[in-house]
Amino acid sequence: MSKGPGLFTDIGKKSKDLLTKDYSSDQKLTVSSYSVSGVTLTSTSVTKGGLSTGDVAALYKYKNTVIDVKLDTASTISTTLTFNDVLPSTKTIASFKLPDYNSGKLEVQYFHDHATLTTAVALKQSPVIDVSATVGTPTIALGAEAGYDTSSGGFTKYTAGISVTRPDSSASVILGDKGDSIKASYLHHLDLLKKSAAVAEITRKFSTNENTFTVGGSFAVDPLTQVKARLNNRGKLGALLQHEIIPKSVFTVSGEIDTKALDKNPRFGLAIALKP
User: So what's the pLDDT on residue 37?
Assistant: First the structure.
């Protein structure tokens, strides 16, 4: 694949991941193993509100093809097929769920040194068509996406964004919700290894005249331990600690409290991911 501006979904992703990734109020256990045939087996169990769910997934890579099959406790089988470079500089992704025969989706991604293009079509009689594109370089990218429902003849979404990425920082502005919201974020790495970082994000909803401001950061306590925290202007404070107990196996504990309503019960989450 080319080293171009990246997909539209990459705009603002680094800031979003730092503020949201690995935060949870569930209890989650993930165990992965590898077979001699090259199949990765992953079993996941999630407990939330006293209810337990889970799934078993098998992932197999063969040359430029990746096959991912998942079976959950609701007896739903989810399958994703990924084909790299069937055509030069392209990635094709086909996905579907059984027994929902209308869940099929086909996505094609095209990568160029100065542009990327993604088209996704739902495989049903009156499909929803999603198209996104970016132009620019790995340093600065401008992009847009739109979704069109052929059954209603209307747009389901249209979004535009711009990002600027430097070796030690990244910034982005996204106009979303059909023009009803705007989000600006800035992330700055605090060390050369990019183990620690600070981020700020502000979102304005025009229809409700509401502003949400969030600051957060991550700090590497040592090579195996990382601490993250976030706080918004509504008083929601979240924090997590993540520790690599053995190589590739991670223990994460997270929590969130409402600093403006301390009488409310805080939320806590626990996750263990074991890999060989």
Answer: 83
What is residue 193's three-state secondary structure?
coil
Asked if residue 99 has a cis previous peptide bond (ω within 30° of 0), the answer is yes
Distances in Å between the alpha carbon of 167 and those of 8, 10, 47, 188, 276?
A: 20, 16, 40, 9, 33
Mean per-residue pLDDT for 263-273? 92
Question: What pLDDT does 1 receive?
Answer: 47
Both tokens of 189, joined, read 């790495």
Alpha carbon distance 49, 255 (integer Å): 15
Q: Is 15 helix (H, G, I), strand (E, B) or coil?
A: helix
pTM of the entire predicted model = 0.90
| Eight-class DSSP state of 10 | G
- Contact at 8 Å (CB) between 251 and 225? no
Q: What is the token pair recorded at 187?
A: 């992330």
Closest CA to 131 of 121, 116, 119, 141: 119
Domains of the chain plus CATH, in order, are 8-274 (2.40.160.10)
Copy the structure tokens of residue 205.
């909803």
Q: Give residues with Cβ within 8 angstroms of 93, minimum separation 6.
A: 80, 81, 82, 83, 106, 107, 108, 109
